[in-house]
């Protein structure tokens, strides 16, 4: 599971070949003992949970980096190496 970004204690990952599980482009966010997945298209929470403040940070980051995330998604579903994406600052 490649880590593509880290900010404010949140680790953002994208799994290879993960289009089977959620069927749409998404990322996984981990913070302490929390795990959640978010849609790249609209930042919606798809599963799991994250504290509200951390979820909002992830959603803002998705909004800023949507184009890069979609490019990484295309690479991930083809099993190719992903590019890191700048953290939220």
TrEMBL record:
Write the protein's name.
DUF4160 domain-containing protein
